[in-house]
Design goal:
Layout (H helix, E strand, L loop, with lengths): L1 E5 L10 H11 L3 E5 H5 L9 H5 L8 E2 L7 H17 L4 E4 L11 H19 L4 E5 L9 H11 L4 E6 H6 L4 H8 L3 E6 L1 E2 L10 H4 L9 E2 L9 H7 L6 E4 L6 H18 L19
Parallel strand pairs: 1-2, 1-10, 2-3, 3-4, 4-5, 5-6, 6-7, 7-10
Antiparallel strand pairs: 8-9
Helix pairs in contact: 4-5
């Protein structure tokens, strides 16, 4: 099992990708999930790519983007640009959101249009050997397990997958463990984060979380929040291969990421090994599942 940090964590920091990669390697991460805004602003000629990152023992599990599914005139160009970023960083996964309205607020015709747009996007990324991962998230058609499953059936394309944001699954009223079991064949990546109290979930609203002056109240380490991550971590420990991205939006970035990384590794180390797991002889690393 690989655990990655997200460059979106450093959206308001004056820090280079070199510094992030160096710290990630020394701390014990296996990957760096690249926010599309950062991917677009890393000059292609600077020599930083998947091979450069591999020198740190790191890979890119996913490019986190926001495709304009409701703007057909912009879609093709945006997808092609994102595919170039994916090729540069040698990742097959491209994250997007399933629209800008929740399932209960989306009419049949509007949903059909979004489904068609997703199917077309899937076809385009599949031609380059990539997958499109829709994120489980409020205010989208993947805001509940039922709607997410319906959307997968409606799009009906093998290149459509899921970025399983556990907190938002819980926010939508579903049990993350049960939802994970249902969606497992389609899950290409996990996002982990937590909140002190359910009533504080609005802190993750885009208008707030992307604002440098926005509130960070309630954002806490994984095992200090209201959502109980222990059952989900134990469940994922049985998976022979997956990637968890720690999506931290709070302060004290380095200490928080290090704490959550070690928390997950400790939990995984205590879990019964999967029969297909392999261990490493490197004494500096916890055996990977």
């Amino acid at each position: 099992m690989d655990i990655s940090l997200c460059t979106i964590t450093f959206r308001h920091h004056l820090i280079s990708l070199d510094q992030i990669a160096d710290w990630a390697q020394r701390t014990g991460f296996q990957g760096v999930e690249i926010w599309a805004a950062h991917a677009r602003n890393l000059p292609a000629e600077d020599g930083r790519d998947a091979d450069w990152l591999a020198q740190y023992g790191l890979r890119v599990p996913m490019i986190s983007d926001y495709l304009p599914l409701d703007q057909p005139d912009l879609m093709a160009e945006k997808i092609d640009t994102t595919l170039r970023h994916a090729a540069r960083w040698k990742t097959q996964n491209i994250r997007t959101f399933a629209g800008k309205a929740g399932s209960a607020a989306t009419g049949r015709e509007q949903r059909a249009g979004m489904t068609a747009a997703l199917r077309g996007a899937c076809q385009r990324v599949a031609e380059q050997g990539c997958e499109l991962l829709i994120e489980t998230h409020p205010g989208t058609l993947a805001d509940t397990l039922a709607s997410t499953c319906q959307l997968i059936d409606e799009v009906d394309h093998p290149a459509l997958g899921v970025n399983f944001d556990a907190l938002h699954v819980w926010e939508g009223g579903d049990d993350p463990v049960q939802a994970r079991r249902v969606l497992a064949p389609k899950i290409g990546n996990y996002h982990f984060k937590n909140i002190a109290q359910r009533s504080m979930l609005p802190v993750f609203a885009p208008a707030n979380i992307y604002d440098a002056a926005g509130s960070r109240a309630g954002i806490v380490p994984l095992l200090q929040g209201e959502m109980d991550y222990a059952p989900l971590i134990a469940e994922i420990a049985e998976a022979p291969a997956c990637n968890i991205s720690l999506e931290w939006f709070g302060g004290d970035v380095f200490a928080a990421l290090k704490t959550d990384l070690h928390t997950i590794r400790s939990r995984l180390d205590k879990a019964p090994p999967h029969p297909l797991s392999q261990t490493t002889s490197d004494p500096q690393h916890v055996p990977l599942l």
